[in-house]
Design goal:
This protein is α+β, with helices and mostly antiparallel strands. Strands 1, 4, 5, 6, 7, 8, 9 and 14 form an eight-stranded mixed β-sheet that branches. A four-stranded antiparallel β-sheet has the order 11-12-10-13. It binds (3R)-3-hydroxy-3-methyl-5-(phosphonooxy)pentanoic acid. The site of (3R)-3-hydroxy-3-methyl-5-(phosphonooxy)pentanoic acid (PMV) has 14 residues, from helix 2 and helix 5.
Length: about 325
C-alpha cells in the first residue's frame, strides 16, 4: 500500500570485466557486457516513502539534504517507478552509505540498487530480479549488477528497447565464491572524483583512439572470465581482471583531453601487486573511475595483500571485503 515506508539494503560491486561505454545514453544501455563481484563491506541503506503531502521529491544523503543534481537525477529515475505503479505521488528518500572510506567507491551501484527495491516496494510494486536490475540500470549501469550477490554477469542485451540489458547471477561453486577477497586500497584520502564515470566514459567513446580497441576486447574477456569461474581457476580470473582494468584505463588515458585517474600512489600500489605475484602470492589489481586500487585475492592471502597495500606510501586506508548478498529488505 502506498504511503508505507520501505527500507532496503544493497552492496556495492566491483567489476572484474569492466563496463566503460554506452551504446544508448537515453536508455543507459552498455556497449558490451560486464562481470562483477558484489562486496559485503560497502553497503547503502535507503528508505523510501511516497507522501501525498509532498509537492516535490525530497532526499537526504548521509543525513544531509541531497544536492540539486542528485535530487534531479533521482526524481527523473523515480518518474519511471511512478509510471510503473500508476501514481504521481512524490517521495521522501533517505539514503545512507555505510562505506569505510569517504568517496569514489561505487556508491552509485549500491545506491540505485537499494533505491530500486525500496522505491518499488514503497510504491506497492513487487518486481522480480530482472525488473529490478533493469530499473537500477536506468539510474547507473553498474547498479544493475548490485541486485544480485556474489559473481554477477551484466548483459549488453540485443533489444533496441534495452529490455534484455539486465544482470543475472553467475552459478559459481559456493566454495570458490566464499574464498574470494577484494582488498580495497584507498589512494588520496577519499578526495572527490576528478571525472564522474558517466561523463568520462562518454568523452572516452567520443575522443579516444583506443576506445574501439577496448570495446573489441570485451567479448573475449567475458568468455575467459566465465570459463575461469566455471573451472574455479582464480589465476585465470585474476589475469583477466587486471587486464580488463588496464585496458579500460588505457582507453581513458588516451581520451583527448585525457581522463587520467592515476596518482603516484596508484602506480606504487600496482607495483606492489606485481611484487606480491613475484613472491607467489595470488593478487590481481583492478581500478575504477578513481585512483584507488582494488586487489582480487583468496582468503588465505588476504592478510598478506592487505599488509602490502597498507605499506604503500600514499595509501590512506585498506579494507578487506568478501562476497556480499544481493539487494534485500532491511
Ligand atoms: O554505472 P557507473 O556510472 O557507476 O559506471 C561504472 C564504471 C566503472 O566503475 C568504471 C566500471 C564498472 O564496470 O563498474
Amino acid at each position: 500500500m502506498i504511503g508505507r515506508p520501505f527500507t532496503a539494503r544493497a552492496c556495492a560491486n566491483i567489476a572484474l570485466v569492466k563496463y566503460w561505454g554506452k551504446r544508448d545514453g537515453v536508455r543507459n544501455l552498455p556497449a558490451a557486457g560486464s562481470l562483477s563481484l558484489t562486496l559485503d563491506a560497502l553497503t547503502t541503506v535507503t528508505t523510501v516513502r511516497f507522501d501525498p503531502a509532498l509537492a516535490a521529491d525530497a532526499m537526504t544523503l548521509d543525513g544531509a539534504a541531497a544536492s540539486a543534481k542528485v535530487l534531479a537525477r533521482t526524481t527523473t529515475w523515480l518518474d519511471r517507478v511512478r509510471e510503473l505503479a500508476g501514481v504521481t505521488t512524490r517521495a521522501a528518500i533517505d539514503s545512507v552509505n555505510h562505506f569505510p572510506t569517504a568517496s569514489g567507491l561505487a556508491s552509485s551501484a549500491s545506491g540505485f540498487a537499494a533505491l530500486a527495491l525500496a522505491a518499488t516496494r514503497a510504491a506497492g510494486l513487487d518486481l522480480d530480479g530482472a525488473a529490478l536490475s533493469r530499473l537500477a540500470r536506468l539510474g547507473s549501469g553498474s547498479a544493475a549488477r548490485s541486485i544480485y550477490g556474489g559473481l554477477v554477469r551484466m548483459h549488453a542485451g540485443a533489444r533496441v528497447d534495452g529490455d534484455d540489458a539486465i544482470a543475472t547471477p553467475i552459478a559459481a561453486a559456493p566454495a570458490f565464491v566464499a574464498d574470494l577477497r577484494m582488498i580495497i586500497a584507498e589512494v588520496g584520502g577519499g578526495a572527490p572524483k576528478t571525472h564522474g564515470s558517466r561523463d568520462a566514459m562518454d568523452h572516452c567513446a567520443a575522443t579516444s583512439p583506443l576506445y574501439a580497441a577496448w570495446v573489441a576486447c570485451l567479448d573475449g574477456d567475458l568468455r575467459a572470465a566465465e570459463a575461469a569461474i566455471a573451472a574455479g581457476d582464480l589465476e585465470a580470473l585474476g589475469a583477466v581482471t587486471e587486464g580488463s582494468a588496464l585496458a579500460m584505463h588505457a582507453a581513458a588515458i588516451a581520451s583527448r583531453p585525457t581522463v587520467l585517474y592515476w596518482q603516484p600512489a596508484t602506480l606504487a600500489a600496482l607495483a606492489a601487486v606485481r611484487e606480491l605475484r613475484g613472491r607467489g602470492v595470488g593478487a590481481w589489481a583492478t581500478m575504477d573511475a578513481g585512483p584507488h586500487v582494488k586487489v582480487l585475492t583468496r582468503a588465505g592471502d588476504g592478510a598478506a595483500v592487505a599488509a602490502a597495500m597498507a605499506a604503500v606510501p600514499g595509501v590512506t586506508a585498506v579494507t578487506t571485503a568478501t562476497a556480499g548478498p544481493g539487494v534485500e529488505p532491511a
